[in-house]
Amino acid sequence: MKCQEKKRYNNNLRSVNVIQVNAMQQKADEIVKTLKSKGLRVTPQRFAVYANLLAREDHPTVDQILTNLNQDAPTSSQATVYAALQALREVGLVREVLLEEGVSRYDANVGLHHHFRCKCCGAIEDIGWDTFECIDLNKLRSGLKAERYEVTVQGICDRCETKSKV
Ligand SMILES: [Zn+2]
Ligand SMILES: [Zn+2]
């Protein structure tokens, strides 16, 4: 958990009331329902990994998910997190994002979208599908049959830009 997130989390804890507990329960029920609807057996690992991915937008690696899950109680191993990710991936709830050679990152946003990758800190964030004008796949040379595409924009994010100015 990032520092700011941790602060937010602690603040949330402080103001926990019945409504929030109900909302959390509702979210948990929704996750269980989603897993079941895909024919997945609900295991604590699958639940934890999917809930973790849904709550973040930073496209974490296996190790980042593992660190995050083990913060409260060290119960997960890299193998169990990886197995849970594979199961979620097979039923289409999670996708693998490969923007760096040899580094698999995971995304619970399985709808169409593009990505921005900061070459400074490696952070990846989603770009809405409608951000770019339609790309004309008919311009491909004949003989190439397009199935899908997405755009990866490389650059420097505002967090790194601010840091370099200080
Ligand atoms: Zn950055
Ligand atoms: Zn994404």
Automatic annotation (TrEMBL):
<feature type="binding site">
    <location>
        <position position="118"/>
    </location>
    <ligand>
        <name>Zn(2+)</name>
    </ligand>
</feature>
<dbReference type="GO" id="GO:0008270">
    <property type="term" value="F:zinc ion binding"/>
</dbReference>
<dbReference type="InterPro" id="IPR036388">
    <property type="entry name" value="WH-like_DNA-bd_sf"/>
</dbReference>
<dbReference type="GO" id="GO:0000976">
    <property type="term" value="F:transcription cis-regulatory region binding"/>
</dbReference>
<dbReference type="GO" id="GO:0003700">
    <property type="term" value="F:DNA-binding transcription factor activity"/>
</dbReference>
<keyword id="KW-0238">DNA-binding</keyword>
<feature type="binding site">
    <location>
        <position position="160"/>
    </location>
    <ligand>
        <name>Zn(2+)</name>
    </ligand>
</feature>
<keyword id="KW-0805">Transcription regulation</keyword>
<feature type="binding site">
    <location>
        <position position="133"/>
    </location>
    <ligand>
        <name>Fe cation</name>
    </ligand>
</feature>
<comment type="similarity">
    <text>Belongs to the Fur family.</text>
</comment>
<dbReference type="InterPro" id="IPR002481">
    <property type="entry name" value="FUR"/>
</dbReference>
<dbReference type="InterPro" id="IPR036390">
    <property type="entry name" value="WH_DNA-bd_sf"/>
</dbReference>
<keyword id="KW-0678">Repressor</keyword>
<keyword id="KW-0479">Metal-binding</keyword>
<feature type="binding site">
    <location>
        <position position="157"/>
    </location>
    <ligand>
        <name>Zn(2+)</name>
    </ligand>
</feature>
<keyword id="KW-0804">Transcription</keyword>
<protein>
    <submittedName>
        <fullName>Ferric uptake regulator family protein</fullName>
    </submittedName>
</protein>
<dbReference type="GO" id="GO:0045892">
    <property type="term" value="P:negative regulation of DNA-templated transcription"/>
</dbReference>
<feature type="binding site">
    <location>
        <position position="121"/>
    </location>
    <ligand>
        <name>Zn(2+)</name>
    </ligand>
</feature>
<dbReference type="GO" id="GO:1900376">
    <property type="term" value="P:regulation of secondary metabolite biosynthetic process"/>
</dbReference>
<keyword id="KW-0408">Iron</keyword>
<dbReference type="Pfam" id="PF01475">
    <property type="entry name" value="FUR"/>
</dbReference>
<keyword id="KW-0862">Zinc</keyword>
<dbReference type="InterPro" id="IPR043135">
    <property type="entry name" value="Fur_C"/>
</dbReference>
